[in-house]
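2024-03-11 09:14:02 DEBUG pipeline.ingest accepted 1 chain
2024-03-11 09:14:02 DEBUG pipeline.ingest length=244
2024-03-11 09:14:03 DEBUG pipeline.predict start
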Amino acid sequence: MPVAHSVPTALRFRGLPAGVECVAPLQLAESRNHKPHTHLFLALPDGEISPSSLRVFNVTKGISRLWFPLPAYTRPGTYKGNVRIDSTDYPIAVEVEAYENLLLSPPHMNVVASPGEQMTAHLSLANGGNVPCQIGKAYAIGLYDVEGAERAVGATFREPDVEGKDKMSRLMDHLADEHAGIVRVQVHEGEGAIAPGEVRELALHLRFPDNMKPGRSYTGSWVLYNLAYQVRVAAHTERRKEHK
């Protein structure tokens, strides 16, 4: 009778390009003087690669962990290949996850502005992830007084005749009073899809809310995919002309 040969277990890796890993029911010979010999091939859209940094660890008896990195901008998807560990070949499937990683420079924005003032700001945007990100034409950033929460709590507790739910309602009212309004953002240059690995310049037109109180400081966040880009505004005492 012909001898039946067992089919090696298929190994499934998952993760981000920075490192995909697999936990498999393998017991690999390893000691201080011996590491498993490995050789890996993987078919990617840009061509077949042979990573030299596959790492193999014995987690516990009969279970091993395998890990290796991919090129930084490897697109999401499932890729096929194989790996040889010592004298055994294993088919592999690598599931690469989507990773949004936008970066803005400078890392935050500090401006001095008067109520209702308009100005232009220039930022550098980079896509360090592995998926395109769409930059729209218009955004809105809510501004809150930096000391507003503390001031609202103090005002609430100084009202002796307010208790229970009424006190919470009054706190919400005081917090709402500390909201200065919306910074309206128009993207004059740099809108559209930004590809993985791309860097571009943004030109933003900003219009600050009319309700800012002179002499106070405000903060808000521009939410853009993974980013919560902080904008800090020192309210000027006088309304000024638009500047760039």
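2024-03-11 09:14:41 DEBUG pipeline.report The domain at 102-235 is CATH 2.60.40 (Immunoglobulin-like).
2024-03-11 09:14:41 DEBUG pipeline.predict end
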